Structures are given as C-alpha cells and as structure tokens.
User: Which sequence fits this backbone?
C-alpha cells in the first residue's frame, strides 16, 4: 500500500523556472506550451528544440529560458494542459455512467483510460514512462492523497452502486484490482504494444477481467 502523501501529482513533474503573473506573460507561456504541443504532435520529440519552439511560438529563445529551464519542463507544461482538459472530460464521462449496467460502465471507463494513456504516450513515450505516477488522470485534480485512497473513494463506491451485479465477499480487493491492477495493465500495454492497446480485443479482455474480479466469493468449506 502506498504511504499517504499530501503531494499532488502535478508537483512531481518538472517545474517551470517561474510562473507568469501578468496577462502578457501568461499569453507568452501559453504560446510556448501550444508550440510544444504542435511540434510533439506533428514532428515528434526529436524536433522539440528551443530554436524550433521559438520559431513556432514567435517567442525569443531568451524568453523561453526565462520561464522554462529545460526541455522536460516544457514537455511537462504540455502534459499539465492536456490533463486539465481531460479532467473535465472525465467528469462528463462519469456523469454518463448513471443507469448503465456494470459491464457497459466498465467498458466506458476502460475505453477512456486507454484513450488517455495512448494520448499521453504518443506525445513523449520516454516522459510518459518516467513520470507515470504523476500522470494519473484520476488523481490530477482529486482531493485524495494517495492511490489507495483514490481507489477507496471511487472504485469501491462504484462496486457498491452495482451491488446487485457484484458477487464478491472481498469488495476492497476487487476495487484494488480494478483501480490499480488493470490500470497497470493498460499502462504497460500502451508502452509495450500500443497497436494492440487500440484494439477492441484488448478492451474486451479488460472488461472480462474486471467482471471476473467482481464475481469471486470464497468457498467457506475451503481450507
């Protein structure tokens, strides 16, 4: 079990040299981050140089270094913006789960997790692998202080909502397997075989595994 920490995931990412305060400086930093995103999307990480960022953003090399000490801090700024956007979509997706049967809800949840992981991986595979614990969408703007607390306040209540479909006498274990184990499978699949991670077969397998976690009762006669 992870130790409790008050550190937010984004605090674990490489930080900018300083934060913009004035409207003009905020616009400059936004332009730099947007330029980084465009370069990563269209040209790849190898093309992400300060000179190229300056060319695309219109900022000077000096102004870029004024806010970002290195390449990783620039990539981090891109990821922060993407996760901010994905947090809004995550909330909307959760609202759409009401009334769905368990298998359909799990399918939507895992499909969204796969989509987000593929997006984050596609920008910079090395950055995605290095800062995987910080790039946890569920914890991005969440009040929970650890992954275990997140599981206990999201996945466990989900199983309780579907109590009529869940057949397990170990709901905490089931919630852990759903919230931690299957997330690890998704992350590793995206890292190791992204094309397979995009397939319907992969999503089908995840839903099957998830449902099996909710249908395990111990035999009281077993030693």
Assistant:
């Amino acid at each position: 079990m992870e130790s409790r920490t008050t550190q937010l995931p984004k605090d674990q990412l490489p930080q900018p040299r300083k934060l913009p305060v004035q409207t003009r400086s905020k616009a400059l930093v936004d332009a730099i981050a947007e330029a980084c995103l465009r370069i990563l999307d269209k040209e790849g990480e190898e093309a992400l140089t300060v000179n190229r960022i300056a060319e695309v953003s219109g900022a000077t090399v000096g102004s870029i270094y004024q806010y970002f000490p290195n390449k990783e801090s620039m990539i981090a700024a891109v990821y922060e913006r993407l996760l901010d956007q994905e947090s809004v979509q995550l909330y909307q997706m959760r609202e759409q789960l009401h009334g769905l049967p368990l298998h359909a809800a799990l399918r939507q949840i895992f499909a969204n997790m796969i989509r987000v992981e593929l997006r984050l991986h596609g920008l910079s595979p090395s950055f995605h692998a290095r800062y995987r614990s910080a790039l946890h969408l569920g914890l991005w703007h969440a009040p929970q202080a650890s992954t275990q607390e997140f599981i206990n306040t999201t996945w466990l209540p989900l199983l309780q909502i579907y109590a009529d479909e869940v057949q397990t006498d170990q709901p905490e274990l089931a919630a852990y397997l759903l919230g931690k184990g299957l997330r690890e499978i998704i992350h590793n699949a995206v890292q190791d075989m992204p094309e397979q991670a995009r397939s319907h077969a992969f999503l089908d397998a995840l839903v099957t595994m998830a449902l099996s976690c909710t249908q395990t009762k111990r035999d009281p006669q077993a030693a």
